[in-house]
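Why do we care about 3D structure at all? Because function follows from shape, and shape follows, mostly, from sequence. That is the central idea of this module. The next example makes it concrete: a single protein chain, its amino acid sequence, and then its structure expressed as tokens.
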Amino acid sequence: MAFKNAIIDDRLDKKYSFVDICIRYSNDWYLRQYRKFPFEERIVIDEELDCWFMNCMYFDDPELDYAKLDKSLWVLYYKGEVIKIILDRDFRIKINGTLYDIVWKILSIKNNKILNEKEIIELLRDILKVYGVNGFWTEKEECTIYVREEILEELL
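And the structure:
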């Protein structure tokens, strides 16, 4: 099996406890108060690999009220381990003569006890290629993505 975009259903939520995991890392008041997602939550998952990837929250823009940055906190679940990853993205960037629709930057990896940095980057390449522009929200068959190989460890 391979990674695929999916919507969290009752079977998946019972198996992985998405709400409990996301509550720990999200600033979403609705999720915290009602212990459920306010809409259909989308993930990228490979059940055979026992691995999924989910966006838990976007960071607030400090310069604009109620605006969000592209910088976001994701959870990578891999064989029972929950790894926090902060990503940022740029759109339509040219690298070495190739124009990419999205260039992902890894800003931080936390709580990682099971995978080395190279393995995480390879997983992210596979996952983000399936995720595309915005997961299920906008399916674009020819989306080109690039994941930078360095971790930019910025102050959070």
